[in-house]
Specification:
By secondary structure, the protein is mainly beta. It has strands at 24-31, 34-44, 56-64, 67-74, 79-81. Helices cover 0% and strands 36% of the residues.
């Protein structure tokens, strides 16, 4: 940690069963009495049984017609847009493939 950096830590302390990958932790945002208008969630891609099995994802959710809907997921291998048609001008082209995955190339 560099001088002046500060972190808030949010931990899911629920013990996990062997091979379990369904634990998450995150933030929920709200307005007035609606406490789920947006979310940032971090979850397990692997079971965290050892270093090589310690992969996670981060997902971003918005409220669409009063329903929490995942719209983007960052995994250890890709950045995925969810529910956005490949024909959308913001998706089509050099940066995004037809599945909505961000294309990253070396060089």
């Amino acid at each position: 940690v560099a001088d002046g950096d500060g972190y808030s830590i949010f931990t899911n302390r629920q013990a996990h069963a062997g091979s379990s990958t369904n634990e998450t932790t995150g933030f929920r945002f709200g307005f007035a009495t609606d406490y789920d208008v947006g979310r940032i969630t971090v979850g397990k891609e692997a079971d965290y049984s050892s270093g090589p099995n310690s992969d996670s994802f981060m997902s971003f959710w918005v409220d669409i017609n009063a329903t929490a809907t995942e719209r983007m997921r960052l995994t250890t291998t890709t950045l995925k847009l969810i529910g956005i048609p490949a024909s959308d001008p913001g998706v089509a082209g050099e940066l995004w493939n037809s599945s909505g995955d961000l294309k990253i190339s070396e060089g």
